[in-house]
């Protein structure tokens, strides 16, 4: 997977623009899950860590790769799980629970 | 490229598409959870594909596999534990921590790559330039995020810490970056160049975040998030892996947008915040004993309860004071009681309410407030004129009408138009100043009643009082 520099820069620039486009449509209500979700996405770094683990051939290399993989895995797993946990709390108004909008009947 | 390599490359492309679509689905609370699941599925597939690629290439040693498995299990366990147990109020710390490990991993990739691969001295600039950038950005993010997490957690004082020579350091260190980076590009095999760059960047991360006050944290976290994304993209350049470049660029864009939004909402420029020394942190020591000033109307729980119970529409304006007092649940209970009585209740959320972008929404969602009632600033401002009561809890500067006039500390800051409501009730412990350190003109408005109480206790009293009227 060798990439020419120009291709790599092109991919980078276009991705930033796609990012701007997609993310500017996210409502402020969801900015915290957005950030933790984006956080999970940069956990892709774990793939890089795996690739360098394959290149390593001495104790220093293994130690560095170990830390990198552990960091990356923590980033990915923690990021997605906590985002899911948060988004789970954003539920729509319940019809059977507390009064529906416009209802004037007290339940207490 | 052999067949496996090609297939894996396509899998990576698919994963990148999943990330973009996942972020796209975040545009509505209804689809957001599915979006996150899609993004996670893309990530899992990419990780499995990488493992297949490594097995196929066969260059990885048995020890290498062991390192992968042990590191992966350890990291996953830590991440899972943290994600499951973290309190929603502590979310900014956790995000900072993930920024730190993400940035740290990106640095380690370049460091290991430069140390381990057989690149001769004349390494192409295609690798050494992004490599140097990765080390700088990643290391700044790593140490900066750890300091930010410490400040948010309270381990490190939230107030701006200015140490002797801090200014000198923030001017001198970037000079060292340039020096170290040029050295590393000219001599990519040089361990000394790499260590110099690493040390300067780590020191800069610390000296950049220490002088920033707690109240500026939403901007700092967003900025560090953007840095992490960029560092990951640079690691992608070093490894020539498009998946890392795309994912890193997406996160960089996301962090960049949020940084801009937060800075705008606080009426501050990003450079001014990073230069620091201004944010006082925790709502500037409330001036205890500073009793009601002239022109302030103090009201009791019963007065407020009557106002609320007979209102048609109430808009609640929650600030960080609410979260600091852990009173979200009391507020949600009070709102439910009013709604059962037929009062329409909405929440007006200022973009910087909380310690990270959107934080207040998560805190209220946790207290079971349906998201339809959470109104963004613009939407809420259009509704204040129809509100019978605006109930302000733990929010200060963002409600100060003085922002509409030039010539004061918050001039031009976007605010919630609380003063346009028919009547206003402010729950507050004292007349203490907010973050900007100026008087809030809302408090002396003739239609404003001040209910002096701690948010949690005050709301509990209100709930009891409302219950006697509607019960």
Structural class of chain A: mainly alpha
Q: Helix and strand string of chain B, N-terminal first? A: HHHHHHHHHHEHEHHEHEHEEEH
H/I helix tally of chain A = 4
Q: Mean of residue pLDDT of chain B? A: 89
Main sheet: strands, sense, barrel of chain B: 7 strands, parallel
- Given the structure, what is the number of helices of chain B? 16
Q: Which protein chains make the most extensive interface, counting residues with beta carbons within 8 Å of the other chain's beta carbons?
A: A-B, 95 and 131 residues
N/C terminus separation of chain A: 66 Å
Number of strands of chain B: 7
Which stretches of chain A are poorly predicted, pLDDT < 50 over at least 5 residues? Answer: 96-108
Question: Could you explain how this protein is built, in words?
Answer:
The complex is a heterodimer of chains A (108) and B (471). By secondary structure, chain A is mainly alpha-helical. Chain A is built from 4 helices and no strands. Chain A is flat. Mean pLDDT of chain A is 86; it is low at 96-108. Chain B has 3 domains: 1-85; 89-282, no CATH class; 297-470, TPP-binding domain (Rossmann fold, 3-Layer(aba) Sandwich), CATH 3.40.50.1220. Chain B is 59% helix and 7% strand. Chain B has 16 helices and 7 strands. In chain B, helix 1 (3-25) runs antiparallel to helix 2 and helix 13 packs parallel to helix 16 (455-470). Chain B is elongated, with a radius of gyration of 26 Å. The chains are: A mainly alpha (108), B alpha/beta (471). The interface between A and B is large, with 95 and 131 residues.
């Amino acid at each position: 997977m060798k990439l020419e520099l120009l291709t790599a820069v092109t991919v980078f620039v276009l991705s930033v623009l796609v990012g701007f486009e997609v993310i500017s449509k996210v409502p402020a209500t969801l900015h915290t899950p957005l950030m933790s979700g984006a956080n999970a996405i940069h956990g892709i770094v774990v793939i890089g860590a795996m690739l360098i683990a394959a290149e390593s051939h001495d104790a220093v290399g293994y130690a560095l790769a170990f830390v990198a993989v552990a960091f990356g895995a923590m980033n990915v797993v923690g990021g997605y799980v906590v985002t899911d946990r948060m988004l789970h709390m954003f539920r729509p108004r319940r019809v059977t629970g507390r009064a529906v909008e416009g209802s004037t009947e007290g339940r207490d | 490229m052999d067949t496996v390599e090609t297939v894996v490359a396509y899998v990576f492309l698919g994963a990148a598409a999943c990330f973009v679509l996942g972020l796209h689905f975040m545009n509505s609370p209804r689809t957001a959870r599915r979006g996150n699941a899609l993004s996670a599925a893309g990530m899992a597939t990419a990780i499995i594909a990488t493992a297949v690629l490594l097995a196929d290439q066969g260059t990885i040693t048995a020890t290498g596999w062991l390192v992968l498995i042990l590191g992966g299990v350890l990291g996953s366990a830590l991440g899972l534990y943290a994600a499951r147990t973290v309190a929603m109020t502590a979310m900014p710390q956790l995000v900072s921590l993930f920024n730190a490990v993400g940035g740290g991993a990106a640095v380690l990739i370049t460091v290991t790559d430069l140390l381990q691969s057989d690149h001769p001295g004349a390494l192409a600039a295609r690798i050494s330039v992004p490599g140097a950038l990765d080390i700088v950005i990643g290391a700044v993010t790593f140490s900066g995020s750890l300091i930010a997490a410490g400040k948010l957690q309270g381990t490190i004082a939230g107030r701006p810490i200015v140490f002797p020579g801090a200014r000198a350091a923030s001017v001198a260190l970037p000079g060292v970056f340039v020096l170290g980076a040029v050295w590393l590009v000219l001599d990519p095999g040089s361990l000394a160049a790499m260590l110099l760059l690493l040390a300067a960047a780590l020191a800069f991360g610390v000296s950049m975040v220490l002088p920033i006050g707690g109240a500026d944290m939403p901007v700092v976290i967003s900025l560090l998030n953007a840095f992490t994304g960029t560092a990951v993209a640079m690691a992608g350049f070093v490894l020539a892996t498009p998946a890392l470049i795309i994912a890193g660029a997406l996160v960089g864009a996301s962090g960049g947008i949020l940084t801009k939004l937060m800075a705008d909402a606080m009426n501050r420029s990003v450079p001014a915040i990073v230069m620091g020394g201004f944010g006082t942190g925790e709502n500037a020591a409330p001036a205890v004993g500073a009793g009601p000033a002239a022109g302030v109307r103090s009201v009791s729980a019963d007065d407020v309860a009557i106002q609320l119970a007979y209102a048609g529409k109430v808009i609640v304006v929650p600030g960080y004071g609410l979260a600091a007092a852990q009173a979200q649940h009391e507020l949600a209970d009070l709102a439910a009681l009013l709604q059962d009585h037929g009062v329409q209740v909405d929440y007006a959320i200022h973009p910087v309410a909380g310690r990270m972008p959107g934080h207040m929404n998560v805190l209220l969602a946790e207290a079971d407030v349906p998201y339809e009632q959470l109104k963004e600033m613009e939407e809420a401002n259009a509704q204040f004129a129809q509100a019978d009561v605006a109930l302000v809890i733990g929010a200060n500067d963002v409600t100060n009408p003085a922002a509409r006039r030039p010539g004061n500390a918050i001039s031009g800051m976007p605010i919630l138009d609380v003063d346009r409501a028919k009547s206003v009730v402010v729950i507050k412990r004292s007349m203490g100043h907010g973050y900007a350190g100026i008087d809030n003109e809302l408090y002396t408005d003739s239609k404003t009643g001040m209910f002096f109480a701690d948010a949690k206790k005050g709301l509990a009293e209100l709930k009891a009082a409302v219950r006697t009227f509607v019960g």
